[in-house]
Amino acid sequence: MRPVFNDNSRRGVSRKTLLAGILILLTLISLGILIAMPPLIMGPIINQHVQFQTVYHAKDFGLDATELTLRTADAYDISAFEVDTSDPKAVIIFMSGIHNPSVTAFFGHARMLKEHGYSSILYDMRAHGESEGDVISLGHLETLDTQAVVDYIRAKDEYSDLPIIVYGVSMGGAVAINSIGQIPEISGVISISAYSSWEDVFIENMVSLGAPNVLATIEKPFVKLYTLCKFGLSTSRVYPKKQIANLGDRPALIMHSTEDSQVRYANFERIMDEAPSHVETWTRPGDYHFMTTDLLQPENDLEYAQRVLEFLERNFGL
Predict the structure, then answer these.
(1) pTM of the model
(2) Strands 280-284 and 252-257, how do they pair?
(3) Three-point CA angle 313, 315, 318, nearest 5°
(4) Fewer CB in a 10 Å sphere around the end CB: N or C, the chain?
(5) What are the tens digits of pLDDT across the range 221-238?
(6) Which residues pair with 172 in a beta bridge?
(7) Alpha-carbon distances of 218 from 25, 42, 199, 211, 264, rounded to whole Å
(8) Which residue spans within the chain are E strands per DSSP?
């Protein structure tokens, strides 16, 4: 005997099918939006070559600098400036932020350190200034740029046995931590206002712009997915709150201001949660993304200059 369906049962099945279809469609649309957001938002930020409006010159700081072009393992030419001193105690590698300023803003630091017996190399990361590249890698691949500088230092007779310290701010601070985590030849790190990971700072900026916390939390793995697709699976663990654990017993000074409006203080806390116990810190009340009140003339900020110089002398002074 064949089953009999009345009109009501047919309509019930149709409604359930329709609702299921609508639910699936809404899920697919939501998923598509979540996947599309990171490239739409991040694309204009990272798919570019930064040409700095202001570039400083060594002579403006009373310095002589040798211009260098260094080749990375993945075939990028990196622009750098070497400020030498006689009988140096160590070599400091400087790197700057994601868009500003040019690393040449650190010539003032190089002068201050030269006066205290340290040589410096300032380099513009890939896709910045005179360095090659059209994509900013958010700290995931810039460690290869640092490695090119380290290789240059190790190949130079005057430097071959000297300690190497990486010193960066903002994204450069993240690159500095990633670099010491990835490159065993580096002896120490000074990091200013680093983000704990790109997805952390991305989500915090979403919330600060008014996005609901729930949406930001859901979006986080899709940001990570985009960076993995963009920079490769090998970079999955190359971010500061992971790489700081590779520090071992090497000296580190991690600095952040408590009201930093560009990279939230919570990033510092997340990095320190994973850092070895010997890591030194300095937190400054207020919104000081560069930590110093005078980036170009750091010796004018006595507290900042003293923190940096004492850390270097204590760990690398002869």
Answers:
(1) 0.91
(2) parallel
(3) 60
(4) N
(5) 999 999 999 999 999 999
(6) none
(7) 19, 17, 12, 11, 20
(8) 66-71, 77-83, 91-95, 119-123, 164-169, 188-192, 252-257, 280-284
